[in-house]
Amino acid sequence: MSNYSQNIGLELPTEPEHYNIGVFNKNAMVIDSELHKLNIKNQSQDELFTTKESLNNEVLRATNKEISIISDLTNEISRAKSVESELTTNLSNEVSRATTQENIIDNKFSALIDGLTIRLNTLADSDDTTLDQLSEIVSYIKNNKNLIDNITTGKVNVTDIIDNLISTDINKPLSANQGKILKDLIDTLTKDNVGLSNVDNKSSEDIRNELTYENVVQALGYNPLGQSGIGEMRFEVDENYDLILIAPDGYDPPLELGNDGNLYYCFS
């Protein structure tokens, strides 16, 4: 009778028995089955190891993500606290400003009430003449409201401003630009521009000092004295800057210089 191995039950032929191919194949099948079980176990262990390593990596990734989230959350909490502190400060300042403004308004309102009270008391104590005058003023304002509105709201529209020098409209203003253009033209004017290039730039005093009797005769076209041979006559300016006629000694011409600057012949 055959014996069997302790672990996997392989058939062990006894010594007097001869080689039996059936027993060999049976034992081979048992060995193959056990090896297959071992392969399956090893494969399962490899899969478990891979799964464990993947889980370890996932745990590490999750841990790093958690650390990043905690850091971001900490920074956000710090920023929120800073913003909250700034908002609290701004709110406190705004409340203080509003309180100050409220006090100013209250003071102005109180002053206005006091002023109105004084005026009403003064009005109540006024005589009939003053009250009649106030009534007339109120009536005038009511009857002339349109006139007053036109005066207080009258303004020049931008579209009414003229920016050229060819318009003939007499009810519209000229632009500042055209005023600048006119000023520039005036600043560039010279004697040559206006046809006075031959005119000397002299004062009235210089002209009076240079004026002679011959200049007067030439300007008049005749001799106002009606005679000749009386010597040279000239005009001079006295200490009061008045123009006087200087005649030769012994001759008193019947001429007078009028206030208008014209020379007049005097009849005796």
Explain what this protein looks like in three dimensions.
With 268 residues, this protein is mostly helical. It is 58% helix and 7% strand. The protein contains six helices and six strands. The protein has helices at residues 21-124, 128-143, 145-153, 176-187, 204-210, 213-220, and strands at 3-4, 11-12, 234-237, 243-246, 255-257, 263-265. The strands form three sheets. The protein has a two-stranded antiparallel ribbon. Strands 3-4 form a two-stranded antiparallel sheet. A two-stranded antiparallel sheet has the order 5-6. The longest helix has 104 residues, at 21-124. It is elongated and about 195 Å long. It starts with a strand and ends with a strand. The model is unreliable at 227-231 (pLDDT under 50).
Blueprint of the fold:
Blueprint: E1 3-4, E2 11-12, H1 21-124, H2 128-143, H3 145-153, H4 176-187, H5 204-210, H6 213-220, E3 234-237, E4 243-246, E5 255-257, E6 263-265
Antiparallel strand pairs: 1-2, 3-4, 5-6
Uncertain stretches of 5 or more adjacent residues: 227-231
User: What is the element string, with H for helices and E for strands?
Assistant: EEHHHHHHEEEE
**General shape:** elongated
Q: For the residues shown, what is the average pLDDT?
A: 75
Count of individual beta strands = 6
Quote the distance from N terminus to C terminus. 199 Å
**Rg over alpha carbons:** 64 Å
Helix tally?
6
The chain-level structural class is mainly alpha
Give the neighbour order of strands across the main sheet: 1-2
User: In percent terms, what proportion of residues is strand?
Assistant: 5-15%
Give the biggest sheet.
2 strands, antiparallel
